[in-house]
Amino acid sequence: MTLGKTKTKEEVIEALHSVAAEMHDKMLKGKPPAMTLPVRTKKNIQFDKKLQVYKYGKNKSTRDATALGSARVLLRSLHITEFIEDMIESGKSSTLREMYYISEGWGNGKFGTQNESNNLAEDLEIVTKCIREDFKLRPEEDGARIIGNVTFEEKNRKGEWMRINCRDDVGDSGYGVPYNVESEKLRLVEHDIDFVMAVETGGMFDRLVENGFDEEARCAIIHLKGQPARSTRRIMKRMSDEWKKPILVFADCDPWSFRIFASIAYGAIKTAHISEYLATNEAIYLGITADDILAYDLPSDDLTKSDLGALESELSDPRFATGWWKEQINLMQEIGKKAEQQSLAKYGLDFVTDTYLPEKLAALGLKY
Amino acid sequence: MNKAEEISSKQKQIAVSEFFEKNKHFLGFDSLQRSIITAVKESVDNSLDACEEARILPNIHVELNKQKGDKIEFVTQDNGPGIPRNAIEDVFGKFLLGSRFHAIRQTRGQQGIGITGVVMYSQLTTGSKTHVISKVKQESSAVIVELGLDTRKNKAIKTGERREVWIDKNTGKEIEQGLRIRTIMKGKYQKGKQSVHQYLRMTSIVNPHASISLIVRDKDGNIIDQGNWPRTTERLPRVVSEIRPHPHGIHLGTLQRMLRESGERKMTSFLRHNFSGVSMRAAREILGKAKIDEGREPKRIKADDAQEMLNAFQKVKLLSPPMDCLSPIDDLLIKKGLSKAIDSRFASTVTRNPSVSQGNPFQIEVGLVFGGDLGADGPIEVLRFANRVPLMYQQGGCLLTKALESVDWKRYGLEHPGGRGVPKGPAALLIHLASTNVQFTSEAKEAVAENEEVHEEIRKALLEVGRGLKNHLKKSSQRKKAKEKFELVNIILPEIAKKSSEILARPEPDLAPVITQIMNAVFCEEVLDWDKERKIATCSIKIYNYTARARAYTILAKWPENEDTAMVDNDRGGRKETKGIWAWRLDTLNPGTCTTIKFGVSGLTKGDWVDTDIFFRGNGEIIGATRIDESLLDEIRKSEALIIAEKEIIKESNNLEPLIDRAEESVQKDISTTILESKEGQLSLSEWEVE
Ligand SMILES: Nc1ncnc2c1ncn2[C@@H]1O[C@H](COP(=O)(O)OP(=O)(O)O)[C@@H](O)[C@H]1O
Ligand SMILES: [Mg+2]
Prior knowledge:
The complex is a heterodimer. Chain A is of the alpha/beta class. Chain A has 13 helices and 17 strands. In chain A, α1 runs antiparallel to α2 and α3 packs across α4. Chain B has four domains: 215 residues, Histidine kinase-like ATPase, C-terminal domain (Heat Shock Protein 90, 2-Layer Sandwich); 117 residues, Helicase, Ruva Protein, domain 3; 141 residues, Ribosomal Protein S5, domain 2 (2-Layer Sandwich); 109 residues, Immunoglobulin-like. Chain B is α+β, with helices and mostly antiparallel strands. In chain B, α3 runs antiparallel to α5 and α8 packs across α9. Chain B is built from 17 helices and 24 strands. The radius of gyration of chain B is 31 Å and the shape is globular. In chain B, the strands form four sheets. In chain B, strands 5-4-3-6-2-1-7-8 form an eight-stranded mixed sheet. In chain B, strands 9, 10, 11, 12, 13 and 14 form a six-stranded mixed sheet that branches. Bound molecules: adenosine-5'-diphosphate (ADP) and magnesium ion. Adenosine-5'-diphosphate binds next to α3 and α5 of chain B.
């Protein structure tokens, strides 16, 4: 795994070649070519107690060329391998979507849907123990925005390191986190903050920025944009690891927002192979909680059937297996309500920064 | 005319139109939509019947032109024998003149009120006369006449009669023979399941020898609907002969009338000459059981004795009535008819052997088409026919539908929720009941009435086409699997080998053992094609051995063998296994090799042969072929022998009158029933060769 430390060109190519070699060796022995990889379904996701994150279990599946479908996937893997090797050699990169369109020219190796190509790229990450950054593959999903007194160095297109302070060198929309936030691309230089505040919705992010909350509360504010992208989770993890600052998650009070928190703190199924590099165990859920709905008498909506189902399944989810979460979920089931972050505006635009957040932070011992 | 006469004639006049008025619902003129269908039906059925009798391949054209209000101009034209000048009046002007009214054989007529009803309906609704042009071949010119009805005298009113040379407007040529009818009636043209279009489409399916066309125009002369169903065969339906009634189907009233009208002097001759299936021996036995003296004069038999006779009829073994009074469509022609009207992937048809119910010969034919353009969501299309006439109403209450619903279609690959109702899926099912006496549920003749024997026969036929469908579905899924495997080893695998070798800069591996591992089976793939130039249907059977050891098989293929066809271009030789099945020996088929058997069949037309079965004999399965069932072959052989035996007995019995009595007692009865049960498909074992 190259997270944290860079793999050389040669190492990546060698890892990819080992996939082709597994197939070639099988054929030399008169056997159908195959590729072995962990089962990537919920069934094979286990909570790693030591790392406190979700990882793939021991179940392996062999994709071999005894059926037409899997044979096609093997052929595609070889085409991707060749494509990545070409990019590495020529110093290019492409988005996953571009690769999907490029595959049009791969004849029988072309993809049916983009989902197929995305999944296969992930498969290759898993079997080669590389990450897509090594493969020069970029996602479409854009990374987070950050505002606050933190300073990064980012390598620009000319290959020069650029110093950026996320308070002084950016506009109102903040610093845009690049897709690759590994150390060969991004360095965490210095900071003058007490904590990181990760915000689910754009509306609340803009409210906090307008109210100057970053300076007032000495924090960096990150906009998650819903379910956070890989790079967003990774940069939070690095700030937590390298600066040892608490990550506080501020989201809506509904079961889906709880899951956003869970993926930040413990990992997600699709990226379980790199959970320990993406998940920030120390992250804390700040609000909005079910308690808050009652305590602040917030405007709320009824829980839908699917909300209730999601809550129920969270009760058996090890990521919510703490007394505090159980209490919150039970309370929510009891009152049958959910509330948005912006419902705090009931008490005026400044209520969130003047009253709500200070009170919540004080409860955590973070005074300002 | 005095006052009294006047009154009485007026009453009569009221009576005939009242009769029409009162019985509109079963005469088919009860609604504006229905009336137009009925008019087309009366006219087209007549054209088909007339052409059939005159042995002419029918060309029938129907034209409907909307007029102001809800009036429609109705035109039909055929190329039939025409109607002689002096008969025109009676045909169009008298009710119930059907020429075949009392004959016992299968005809389309006898369904409705006849063409006179159309004349009457037009006159009553619009006052229009019916214009008729009739050309008989032997005469030099056509008769042109306008007809109305004198309802008082039940007689036609002829006006404007003249003779003219009849010229076809399109070709400018003289029309040699045919009949054209034109009138104006109230009606409403509608599309859909119950429409003129559907009626003609269905008619064309069961009359593949007819070319039928339809044009419908709106008030302004724009074409709003049309159909064109060209003939798919030049073969006319066979001539049906009339038969005498069979004792098992006779009612007391009819029997008494026959006795009364009989000129016979003795009861034995009365029975033998007026009924079919009654031999001398049987006549004696009947009379003995009924305690009637053989010498008595039929005219003097009273009701009590007639009733005794009726009872005796049921107790005595009788010959079946002759079956040449029926005119089945023939399964190959049903297939053609269906495929011209419906685009599908698969068609399976069955013509059952004739059977008897209460002395009435009947015969069931069934056709199933599946796949292609057919919609997959709703219930399948049910096409019901009685004596080649489409039944378009009361589907649910019809025996044909009920028999269809009684089959467990899930077992044959159709969706059948709860095992009830009409199954769902991309299929259409045709059921044809041919009978000398179709029993309907009501006078309207829209639905066939319950009858256990008919029900059973339909079921058997349906099960047979059902098995065909199941077989087809299994075959196509096997074929799909085999196709995928071929693609895998022939295209994808070599590319994997090439690409991985390129990436690793290694030599390419030998794939033969890999392929054997992946396939580990023998595959068979057959392709049927049509050689346009030589007019030969071709069949090519490829056998691939993808196993690790050499194989030896006998490959057998089904082919449409009959008097007109021959096997050609069969370079591999082989030998005839039995009628319709050819066999080739494959001595060694080495691992990783493939061999092809090719042959052609002459004497067919394009589309005749679209599906075949491949069988094998030998060790190890072949994907895409079925292991030949030796016991089935054996059965086929036996039934073929029986058919030959039957033919011989019939030949003899035609020559030697006394033999009938002997034959009926045991042999023939047994043989004919055995044949009915065992003859499935067209295979016969007359030329069976023992290995
Ligand atoms: N298109 C026609 N061509 C020749 N003869 C016809 C035609 N239409 C009717 N006929 C003759 O007129 C007869 C009466 O017809 P119809 O009244 O419809 O009764 P049915 O059809 O029951 O016999 C037919 O039996 C046939 O002999
Ligand atoms: Mg008629």
